[in-house]
Amino acid sequence: MPDSQSTPAPERSVALAIRKEKRFRPLGLTADSAIRRFFQGNAAFAILALVLIMVFLLREGAGFFGQNSRGIRVYRLAGLEYVDIIKGQLDRHAELTRAANALRLKIYSDALAKGAAPQAATAALAGFDAFAEALGDASEDVRSLASDLTEQAAAVKQREQIYQDSIEQKAMLIRAGKAGAAAAVSSVAVDFGREIKALSASLPIYKDANRLFAKKLNASLAMAGPQSVPAAWTPQLSGLKAAAERYAATFPEVEAELAAWRYDAPVPWYRSVTAFLFGRQWLTASFWQDWYGIIPLFIGSLLVSLIALLIAVPLGVVAAIYVSEVAGTGEKTWIKPAIEFIAAIPSVVLGFFGVAILGQSLRAVSETTWLAWVPGFPMSERLNAFTAGCLLAFMAIPTIFSLAEDALTNVPRHFKEASFALGATRLQTILRVLVPASLSGLISAILLGFGRVIGETMVVLLCAGNRIAIPDFTQGLGAFFQPVHTMTGIIAQEMGEVVPGSIHYRALFMVGIVLFLLALGINYVAQRVVQRYRISIG
């Protein structure tokens, strides 16, 4: 028998490969095909998990639009839509009143800043105060009528809800084989036509109240003469009066809309979809009407993510450039692990840090007099979009840094050598050669960093303020310092409180679907950018 030591190396390698292949022959596999099947199975499992998640979200959220459409139909049949037309008019009047109060506060604060005594500043505003009080009281008659109509429409909706509950109770008893008990359940259908006649009969009363409203409004505007405010504030007062006059001109339109309203007008099939995708209210558990509009949540998520990227992108990319092209070997050994370690910090810990320290510190800084020129300062709330955005930026830096550094490292070495050979400095080489050559990879890093922050939950739930409202963008950068709510935050906050199968439950799953599709879209764009980057480098 030949000695194994005397067998040539190539022959030993072939013999070893044959023995390995024989091990898998009972299964019909070779070593290479087994490895290939293993990784194919992992990839297939990932795809299957992705499909199952999407199927689960669609299954749980599929009934939302049908339920929402029925809710909107009852909203119209019961007359709530009719009353909301009047309430919309009153809401616009309330905005005018708030604008008048805000102007009064500015004038008063300006007088105090110029050295006037509080009593003197108040006395100087006596004429403006009379105007503001008359402006606020002008809607008293319409507001009283709207209150009565609100109770009437809400009672109709409640009777309809009781009727629908009785129908469901009967169906459950019949399925349980208790036909006798089902027959004993009383159910009285609501005669919407009769109920709406009583509601629409108030239109002449509303028109009389509206005429009185317009008369009182014009009388209040007559009280706001130039002498009611200091001369420097006359343009602001004129603007407020012009807004009030434009508002009064809309009264005939409101009356015409009420006269043309019909309770039995069909609700278009797409109304439920548009109310969700473009609705500006997320209002649940309301005695009046629940609304599930994703716009305030979507804008809140984008605003917080934008703040995070504005902070994280410069820091992450610059750090990647420094580590890749400037730092020495010793610096790289501790800078890169330190930045990447940030990703290991639990998000809930960062959230507690934001609540306990960062939010209060930022608010204290905003109250300093030398920063009074910054829009939104001093901050009214310590928990807001900016506080959450700062923490999300801290979480996004490792992702952006790692991917950006890889993109810079993968730029062919001869690009840099050619630049140096032509006499370019290190800074010129970085800005004019390396960054443009790795631009696609840097964009991919930014997109994946965006996907990282927009899907974060705990930080925004604890630090964003959780106010479901569209920020007031008329304040410019001041909108960054307003409380917001996000799509991830609303799911985490409300999912544990909803009844499975309810419209609220399904609405949260629809938010999850939007978030899921958004994350898929971001990752798809990032992968396409990476693919383009690889092709350009190759």
Q: What can be said about this structure in brief?
A:
About 75% of the residues lie in helices and about 0% in strands. The chain is built from 23 helices and two strands. α4 (about 80-115) runs antiparallel to α11, α4 (about 80-115) runs antiparallel to α12 and α22 packs antiparallel against α23 (about 505-535).
Description:
This protein is mainly alpha-helical and 538 residues long. It has three domains: 4-61, no CATH class; 70-268, no CATH class; 302-489 and 519-537, MetI-like (MetI-like fold, Orthogonal Bundle). It is 73% helix and 1% strand. The protein is built from 23 helices and two strands. It has helices at residues 9-24, 31-61, 64-77, 80-113, 118-124, 126-137, 140-175, 179-184, 192-200, 203-223, 234-248, 251-260, 271-277, 295-326, 329-341, 347-366, 385-409, 413-421, 426-437, 439-454, 458-463, 487-494, 503-537, and strands spanning 282-283, 291-292. The chain has a two-stranded antiparallel ribbon with strand order 1-2. A hairpin with a 7-residue loop joins strand 1 (282-283) and strand 2 (291-292). Helix 4 runs antiparallel to helix 6. The longest helix has 36 residues, at 140-175. The protein is flat and about 85 Å long. The two termini are 53 Å apart. The relative contact order is 0.09.
